[in-house]
Amino acid sequence: MTHRTGTWEPTEGAVLVGEGLHAGYPGRADVLDCAHIAVSSGSRLALLGENGSGKTTLLRCLSGAHEPTAGRVVVDGIALSHSASGLREHRQRVQLVLQDPDDQLFSADVRADVSFGPINLGLDDAEVRVRVAEALELLDVTELADRPVHQLSYGQRKRVAIAGAVAMRPQVLLLDEPTAGLDPRAVTTLRAALSNLEARGTTVVVSTHDIDFAWEWADEVGVVVDGIVHQGSTVKIMTDEALLGRAHLGVPWPVRLLRSLGHEIDVVAPPRTVSDVARLLG
Amino acid sequence: MARFALDEAAWSGPWRQRSTAEKAVLSMGLLGVAATSRSMWASLLVLGAAVGCALRAARVPLRTYAVAVLAPASFVVLGAIPIALTFGGSPTGVLAQLGPVAVTADGLMSAGQVALRSTAAMAAMTLLAATTPMVDLLGGLRRLRVPEALVDIAGLVYRMLFTLMDSVLAVREAQAARLGFVDGRTARRSMGLMGGSILGRAWQRSRRLEEGLRGRGYAGSLRTLPRETTVSIPFVTASGVLVVTLAATSFLFTLRGVA
Question: What ipTM does the predicted assembly reach?
């Protein structure tokens, strides 16, 4: 758990850390009020919270898009500086993909849009082509490369937007509401793409309202409530009904079902999928 | 999702994979012949060549191509009407007269020449527009060293046009569902509200887009990887032969005084 008071130490092996972050917007109380978060290398972290809780602001702070009024962001032991060179350095390690892909896709040509980041890294054309091809393949959008962005579906545009960030080969990829507005099939495709990224060693952080997705996908969960982050293992946080209630979130369906049938949740190997639950009840 | 027929034809046609340069040779060549011809027959030949290339070779849908050419052609026809008219004096070869305004054979011929020449030129330009997506045209402009800022702005306008159109369609549909276009007064009010709403959305989107671009290292330039295409020598040769033949024919018609 993360508390507003007392000392806080990031978990060992954390690649990205937000420490004592205070952040907000003019004319409003701080959305983040001494929030701590640690992203372990190779872990799957899901950020949960109700609308306006500060999930997006937290991701923006971690990516360098929003400068916190207090606190610091550390990546690989190096504190983020909001100077031009500091941000340039940071963005090669941490990439944020915005919720709405149309906020990110500026070119009507898929391949051209994905090439934008690598070109800004100063890479030569041959290397840029390699990265673009790799990113398109990882996100399973290679066949869309020659189609105009405005003819793609929302889910396809989301994957292309993620490919644009992936082409920069970041250590940590922050995805703001990647499943929002997607149909179940598009969510499945997106999850497969996330698995590809993880297999390549990219650490993925996802903010979401989808508690069932978080339960099934994440190793760790951070619940943003009252300006701070309550972080812990998925099973620990997502079985804490009091905490989820304070955040106006529900309980994942396997937890709800098993508890209603009088079962205890196995904290070592929690049932995450329908087949897990079926086996348990079986 | 907003769609424009000409844009779709350009993205999906068989000439999509051809290099912009080779299509520009054909289109600009035809345009040049159309603009310099002094003969209606030569203009007709250019028009026929452009239409043939578009409909047969590039498989642009007839309706799409016709609308793209005829819509501006209607302005050309309107513009040609004053050329056909003679005011005052004592004109010769009068075909019709109303008070001081007369229609003469020479005037009518001049108006026809202008209208036909303009239509042929538009058909040639539309051939390029209907077979080359805007991103490729902008890539071509970038290679021609057109200032980067202009190309970047044009590219952004093109991309944002579709998201803006989606917003407009969505807002309009929502307003129509709540009887926002039930009469003229309500429609005007709805349009005004929609304009304000879209303006606000466009502003917010531009701010978020800038943030998204900065996240990927934007520092003032929107340079991206150019599309890799090879110029087809047979295509360029065939285009050259067609253009030179039309130009020679046009010159011959002019020499022999063919109308």
Answer: 0.78
